[in-house]
Amino acid sequence: MVRAARGYAATSATTPLSLFDFERRSLRNDDVVIEVLYCGVCHSDLHTTRNNWGNAKYPIVPGHEIATLNIGL
To answer: Model confidence over 21-49: pLDDT tens digits?
Structure first.
């Protein structure tokens, strides 16, 4: 089952982050369901959203430093 999700995304290297609705793939047997409680944005996220490394694929929802609540297996 596909899951609805929401985040703040960069849609290009020059636009500010904006609210973005998207779908997550169906869960696999080895996945864990989490609820993101807090998310930090670090310098590498800024480089990625601004395409400083030349490999960005938009839209991008930055933030890989997260605090979560495990919901299920």
So the answer is: 999 999 999 999 999 999 998 999 999 99
Q: Tell me the pLDDT band of 15, cut-offs 50, 70 and 90.
A: very high
**Three-class DSSP category at 71:** strand
Predicted TM-score (pTM) of this structure: 0.79
CATH 3.40.710.10 fits 3-72, yes or no: no
Question: DSSP of 7-60, one letter per residue?
Answer: EEEBSSSSSPPEEEEEEEPPP-TT--EEEEEEEE--HHHHHHHTTTTS---SSB
For the record, the structure tokens of 56 come out as 């960005």
Domain-by-domain residue ranges, the chain? 3-72
